[in-house]
Write a structure and sequence with these properties.
The chain is an alpha+beta fold and about 375 residues long. It has 3 domains: about 120 residues, Butyryl-Coa Dehydrogenase, subunit A, domain 1; about 100 residues, Butyryl-CoA Dehydrogenase, subunit A, domain 2 (Beta Barrel); about 150 residues, Butyryl-CoA Dehydrogenase, subunit A, domain 3, CATH 1.20.140. About 55% of the residues lie in helices and about 15% in strands. Strands 1, 2, 3, 4, 5, 6, 7 and 8 form an 8-stranded mixed sheet that branches. Strand 9 and strand 10 form a beta hairpin. Helix 1 packs parallel to helix 3, helix 3 crosses helix 6 and helix 8 runs antiparallel to helix 10. The longest helix is centred in the middle third of the chain and has 37 residues. It is globular and about 80 Å long. It binds flavin-adenine dinucleotide. The site of flavin-adenine dinucleotide has 22 residues, from helix 4, strand 1, strand 3 and helix 10.
Length: about 375
């Protein structure tokens, strides 16, 4: 019982720490980075200094030794102010750092963890290819083994943090088996494309990764040859939870904005909050936020480095992605013309929310996974 209290206190402290940081450091820069479509790397380093990059990494490896619930708290709070920045953080902290830590050799831990846990180096992960997204197992990038290392050829696309990253976790087929490699930016044969412009999440950036006879030493194999699918699937679960938590942060922000606006703005001689149709937007949005919170944190409690819950993480992201988009849309509607314009930022949250129906698995991919898992039983 005492241990449970300690854990609850620790999580509350974490939430208050992140909330304070978000208010003073994240909120003030968010609109400018949405407008300029740039990722704030210095802000990521500030999170590193607070120990918030290694939330899921054991203390023995230099992390904070917390868990998937703590990771959700950070993503939820960051997305309340800046979903795009939260996505860049997710790509760094979960897609690179957490993924690497789960399978890395002692040498790889020593080489990459300290630099990426502090944010001195930015990380990214390359799975998707120009011709292969949902059907990821059909990837076409190849790795060939030579006496002194591996040679990678292929192209990855839509890679978050690609333009800024110093180091990449990359999946390629070695003798037709998906395998994970770590590739520093200065590796011969590696390059990146120009930035890819996008609709939302503009405070994070993305580009293609290009491998042309890219030579890496044998030491850059992560885990085992052919072990890439396990790394990928295990990490997709915590990624989906992070995206579900970001959806929750987006929806909380949009709900708060519409509630406040509906009290201040009057039409036909009374506040918007007294019009029944506006009450429907607010009431339904509140119910969605509460459902998102319950589902996301319930599932988070069942996920860990040795604990898998594919069904739960698919369900959390499937539900939360669409619910957040609906709540953001309701906020735009409640604010009318002000909602459609930039000042209150709800139009930005609507653009940002849409990504979570696509990235980290599309809605259709979640529907198929859930049905496959349920019909197997
Ligand atoms: C902003 C952003 C950031 C991203 N960051 C990263 C990153 O950091 N690293 C990375 O590796 N990837 C990243 N991605 C890629 C993302 O994971 C893919 O876009 C996603 O998995 C979908 O793949 P796709 O775009 O190729 O769509 P496709 O697979 O071509 O699908 C197109 C449409 O068809 C549907 N569809 C496909 N197959 C089926 C089927 N069998 N049945 C029914 N419907 C189907 C899909 O659901 C979708 O609606 C990012 C994408 C975006 C937009």
């Amino acid at each position: 019982m005492a241990a449970q209290h300690d854990q609850a206190d620790e999580r509350e402290l974490l939430r208050q720490t992140v909330r304070q940081f978000v208010k003073t450091r994240v909120e003030p820069q968010a609109m400018a980075h949405d407008e300029s479509a740039t990722f704030n790397v210095e802000l990521l380093r500030e999170l590193g200094a607070l120990g918030l990059i290694g939330v899921t990494i054991p203390e023995s490896e230099g992390g904070s030794g917390l868990d998937a619930t703590a990771s959700c708290i950070v993503h939820d709070e960051l997305a309340y102010a800046d979903p795009g920045f939260a996505l860049g953080y997710l790509a760094h902290a979960l897609l690179f750092v957490n993924n690497l830590n789960n399978a890395a050799s002692p040498l790889q831990r020593k080489t990459y963890l300290p630099r990426t846990l502090s944010g001195a180096w930015v990380g990214a992960m390359g799975m998707t290819e120009p011709a292969v997204g949902t059907d990821v197992l059909g990837m076409q990038s190849t790795a060939e083994k030579r006496a002194d290392g591996y040679v990678i050829n292929g192209r990855k696309t839509f890679i978050t943090n690609g333009p800024e990253a110093h180091v990449f976790l990359v999946y390629a087929k070695l003798a037709d088996r998906i395998t994970t490699f770590v590739v520093p930016r200065d590796t011969p044969g590696f390059s990146t494309s120009a930035k890819i412009q996008k609709m939302g999440m503009r405070a994070s950036t993305m580009c293609e990764l290009i491998f042309e006879d890219c030579r890496i030493p044998l030491d850059n194999l992560v885990g085992t040859e052919g072990g890439g699918i396990t790394n990928m699937m295990r990490n997709l679960e915590i990624e989906r939870l992070g995206l579900a938590a970001m959806s929750l942060g987006i929806a909380r922000r949009c709900l708060d904005t519409m509630v406040s606006y509906a009290q201040d703005r009057a039409t036909f001689g009374k506040p918007l909050a007294e019009h029944g149709q506006i009450q429907r937007y607010i009431g339904e949005s509140y119910a969605k936020v509460e459902a998102m919170r319950a589902l996301t944190y319930n599932v988070a409690a069942t996920v860990g480095p040795t604990q898998r819950n594919r069904l739960g993480t698919d369900a959390a992201k499937l539900f939360c992605a669409t619910a957040a988009k609906e709540v953001a849309d309701a906020a735009v509607q409640v604010l009318g013309g002000y909602g459609y314009c930039a000042e209150y930022r709800v139009e930005q949250f609507l653009r940002d929310a849409k990504l979570n129906e696509i990235g980290g698995g599309t809605l259709e991919a979640h529907q198929k996974n859930i049905t496959r898992d349920l019909t197997k039983r």
